[in-house]
Amino acid sequence: MKTATSPQVFRTTTLRLGTRGSLLAYTQSKIAAAAIQHLNPGLNIDLVICKTTGDAVQDRSLHSIGGKGLFTKELEEALLSDKIDFAVHSFKDVPVTMPLVEQSGLTIAAVPRREDVRDVLISTSAKTLHDLREGARVGTGSFRRRCQLLSRRHDLEIRPIRGNVDTRIRKLREGKFDAIVLALAGVKRAGLFDPTEMNAIAVDEMLPAAAQGALAIQCRVADQHTVRLLSALDDPHTRECVGIERAIVQALNGDCTSPIGALATTDGQSIHIRAAVGARGGGLPVIRAEAQARFADRKSALDHVLQLLAKQGSKRLLGS
Predict the structure, then answer these.
(1) If we measure between CA atoms, which residue out of 207, 248, 214, 252 comes closest to residue 233?
(2) Could you give the domains of the chain?
């Protein structure tokens, strides 16, 4: 995670950091807290656990109860009611369209440097998608992953799976699935990566979700002191790339359950934008588009990708 070059002595003694209670969310929050405290010796950060609807309801699919915004709703409400001072989200869980909480009083003050954007195949019997046995049971709760898996292997039996990262891995090891697919960043941050049964899937095989691997550190717009404090963790290139990926989802009128993959990468001089769209519900076909341009021409590259998707019938596929 990006840190500033010189720490400062912070004038306020304590900030309240809201977090979900899951292993991954709690660990991500501790990582962010440590980075902020490194820049501000003497600052205390109290972690306040907020139980979210997304965590509480585990017996139904996310899309049937309101989408991934249910992982951020209660945290954002706690911010607006001044129960916490800031929150750390997995950015891919932050709704692009139809947020569940009014956003005018909130801001993403920092998007730290991104972790690995790829998905990871977890299996005790296969290292690649090609290695999976015919008809293998693959667990994922993502329509984006479902359609891209089927585009590579029509024979796979894609089964829904819910639960935190550690819970899903446990279900695999109990033999309920032949393989599961998760975001590699989350597995790494949670300290659960095991190279003997986990192998990254190349982005050419499976494009990640918009903002996958990135964190969003959120606070109140009016709390300018906290905004300035958190902004020291911001990585401009990550913020820009994530913004482009989310713009693809927005332009397609997608939501967090839409089968849309998007990835923008940059070296500061040029940018590469890729997108993949499946049929609503995670079905086939999967259409793809990409563009490369100078970084200064990134808006034109984004428009070109959207035009290519439109020509292939993206709106029809997504049912919009």
Answers:
(1) 214
(2) 14-112+214-234 (3.40.190.10), 119-201 (3.40.190.10), 244-318 (3.30.160.40)
